[in-house]
Amino acid sequence: MGAGTPRLHDPWWKLLGRAVGGPRQIAGKLRRALRTAHLYLDPGEIDRRLARIERAGVADAHPTRLQLVFGGLDMLRFVISPAARDYYEQLGLSFGFHQLLRFLDDPVSLTDPTGFLSDRDTIVGHVMQVVHLNPVYDLELLEMFDDGVADLERQLESMVAGTHPRHGTIAAIVEEPDYHARLLAYVRAYRRDRATPHMVRPTQTLRGDPIFAAAERTFATLPRFLRYCTRIPQRAGPLLLRLIRQREFPMALAEPPDA
Fold first, then answer.
1. Which of 5, 112, 175, 204 has its CA 20 to 30 A from that of 56?
2. Consecutive H or E run containing 180
């Protein structure tokens, strides 16, 4: 798997250089960082984005800003990190080095696990730079923008064609040579029908773990994640205490198994 990707055959120092990119790529990273900083300072932006998602017919739950932040931390520690570690162990690659490459390619993509305070290009870039366990959450998140999913399709087309301006930096991170082609096919199917079967990456050591399966099911889609966020406390004190004490996914808050 991924025998032809730079991520698997280039030396570490070359991968670092690829991830940083040239002046044009660095300027783009700075622009995204400034836009994200502006979004963080705008207290009404999350409400506006939730309203757009509701108008798009994607979800209708309305967690608070704090619930989103701490729900995102739960998603990160109970699903994203364990699944990523499992994946890189399968490939025999360093998870820590991968995180460094991700940071160098786009520092902003690591600062907002929920994506609610990221701009469109950051979300699109994140989906393209990481072989996702299940990308449907990010596609639903892109419904916050009128042209979000369409822009992802356009950028994937240029990535597959080798003409994308970030082709070199993203190629330094992605391990599977057919990932963008498969993702492009899925995005096209999703645009035709949101109910199209998800593009799920299988896990190995986590397979059969009922707690991980419940967490994966609960955080798999944007509507389920938002519902989860509304079930956790609203105030900062209880949320912080829960973050310290809750060491594994709370099964009582899990979404029911799919029919």
1. 112
2. helix 179-192
